[in-house]
């Protein structure tokens, strides 16, 4: 019996453009981005880091509900999103609110999603996305379907879905990438490998050395990317998008990343399963720190500019919280009305009952 596993695994190297010191180490792969694009990527990462800090504080004050921290994953989330077009369709996981915001979801609605308000799940017209999935892996098969739909309609658009290392251990993951490969769906599957599924390390979830290599069995392209390097994530996603719309099939992108905070704000304590050494090691790789060095070296960024941006971001967040606070509380009748175009007779009765209670 010929042994091929080792050969295959050895072929999956980590794709990097910008190293930890903020130096370009892979000039050939440098994407075609204007100075303004580069600055915009930085703005989005800084905004998202501040939003994360504020969201954690708001959650602790009881002013937000469900929240999954994002700090550390900005390059992975926003580098990939920056490679998308407006027509592309995002199927996110619960940690992927930043991508939705930059795809057009108003921030106050993201806060309403956190509070479990139905308005947080209603994408505005023209924002091609569904709300964040809580069931691990469920969005992956759906993404294959959306990508197939784009192919059948001959549209210049892709579906992109996000999950974690834990998601890549789910049955839905294998089913989704296999289906997408078989039917040539215009899809991109991003697995943000932040090393842990809550407290379970990735080594305990799979015997595979990389998640990217899981693409091989599905007959699709797979690439492992330095998920703390926003340029590498952008370049990989951009190429995957082009291949998808050119009829060359779907791509699996594994981004190697880390979440600096807890799993969610519901009582997780990462010190029980991560060492300080590990945290320190990943802090050295911080996506914002290295991109800041790169931009400063090019004369495109300054401390002053960043401070101004931070102040502006805090104001925007404040205004969005206010807007969320001013949104009328959801009523039982609202839930019935948004579910049905025409209510079944039993619910009609219930609706009348609730409508009377609510008017009091
Ligand atoms: C089908 C399913 N099983 C279990 C859970 C509980 N659960 C919530 S988050 C999580 C870990 C997921 O880890 P990963 O995919 O690595 O994503 P990360 O949170 O690290 O971004 C689990 C097991 C769930 N939401 N859905
Ligand atoms: Mg994970």
Automatic annotation (TrEMBL):
Keyword Repeat on entry: no
Enzyme class: oxidoreductase
Coiled coil: 303-360
Domain of life assignment: Bacteria
GO biological process, one term: branched-chain amino acid catabolic process
Cofactor(s), by name: thiamine diphosphate
Complex and partners: Heterodimer of an alpha and a beta chain.
Name of the protein this chain belongs to: Pyruvate dehydrogenase E1 component subunit alpha
Organism: Halobacillus salinus
Gene: pdhA
């Amino acid at each position: 019996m010929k042994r091929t596993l080792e050969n295959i695994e050895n072929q999956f190297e980590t794709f990097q453009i910008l190293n930890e010191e903020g130096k370009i180490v892979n000039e050939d792969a440098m994407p075609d981005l204007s100075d303004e694009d580069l600055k915009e990527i930085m703005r989005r990462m800084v905004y998202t880091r501040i939003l994360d800090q504020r969201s954690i504080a708001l959650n602790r004050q009881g002013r937000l509900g469900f929240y999954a921290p994002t700090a550390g994953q900005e390059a992975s989330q926003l580098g990939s999103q920056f490679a998308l077009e407006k027509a592309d369709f995002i199927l996110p996981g619960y940690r992927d609110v930043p991508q939705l915001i930059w795809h057009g979801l108003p921030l106050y609605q993201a806060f309403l999603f956190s509070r479990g308000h139905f308005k947080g799940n209603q994408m505005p017209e023209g924002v091609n996305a569904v709300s964040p999935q809580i069931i691990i892996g469920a969005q992956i098969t759906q993404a294959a379907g959306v990508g197939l739909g784009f192919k059948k309609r001959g549209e210049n658009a892709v579906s992109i879905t996000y999950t974690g290392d834990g998601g890549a251990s789910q049955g839905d993951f294998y089913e989704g990438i296999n289906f997408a490969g078989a039917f040539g769906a215009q899809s991109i599957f991003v697995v943000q490998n932040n090393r842990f599924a809550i407290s379970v390390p990735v080594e305990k979830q799979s015997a595979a050395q990389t998640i990217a290599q899981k693409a091989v069995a599905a007959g699709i392209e797979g690439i492992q990317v330095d998920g703390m390097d926003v340029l590498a994530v952008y370049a990989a996603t951009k190429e995957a998008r082009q291949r998808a719309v050119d009829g060359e099939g779907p791509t699996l992108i594994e981004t190697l990343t880390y979440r600096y905070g807890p799993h969610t704000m519901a009582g997780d304590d990462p010190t029980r399963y991560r060492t300080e050494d590990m945290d320190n090691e990943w802090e050295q790789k911080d996506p914002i720190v290295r991109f800041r060095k790169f931009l400063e070296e090019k004369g495109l960024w300054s401390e002053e500019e960043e401070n101004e941006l931070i102040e502006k971001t805090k104001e925007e967040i404040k205004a969005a919280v206010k807007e969320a606070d001013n949104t009328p509380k959801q009523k039982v009748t609202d839930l019935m009305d948004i579910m049905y175009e025409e209510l079944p007779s039993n619910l009609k009765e219930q609706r009348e009952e609730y409508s009377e209670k609510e008017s009091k």
